[in-house]
Amino acid sequence: MTDVHVYIGSKYRLDEGPQEAEMIRAVEAYRHPLYHLSTDLMTATRDVALIKLEKPCKIRPARLAPADGSENESDALATTTGWGLVNNETLSDTLQTTDVEIFPNKKCANAAANTTVDDSVICAGNGNAKDYCAITGVALF
């Protein structure tokens, strides 16, 4: 990777605002081997990657869910974060968060008739039209 840095702990998308973030150089990135972006650029499957940092960060690492999917139970609550669209118009400059409920994939498939919902997807949302389903690369924890 050529001169790519990550800002860990920042809530700002741009170099504006107070930066409490730790900046560390990224040395490698590993995209999921089965990642796929649709030709219309609207749907990404297995949209996950790992970034190897030049040195350890001071912030506590994220806790990963078990590989067996046992924590992806329907009706469980999760939080999603991202710099997504505000009022469907512009990207937010500050990190946005919202709580979402994990839904059975069958419910998502019924709601999104023209979308494939398979086992590679965790379906989440809430009834307030607040989610990040149209933005790829957001965090769900």
UniProtKB/TrEMBL annotation:
One of its GO terms (molecular function) is serine-type endopeptidase activity. One of its GO terms (biological process) is proteolysis. PANTHER family: FI18310P1-RELATED, POLYSERASE-RELATED. It comes from Phytophthora nicotianae. This is Peptidase S1 domain-containing protein. The keyword Aminoacyl-tRNA synthetase does not apply. Its main location: secreted. It is found in: Secreted. GO terms for cellular component: extracellular region. The keyword Disulfide bond applies. InterPro entries: Peptidase_S1, Peptidase_S1_PA, Peptidase_S1_PA_chymotrypsin, Trypsin_dom. Keywords: Disulfide bond, Glycoprotein, Secreted, Signal, Virulence. Residues 1-133 form the Peptidase S1 domain.
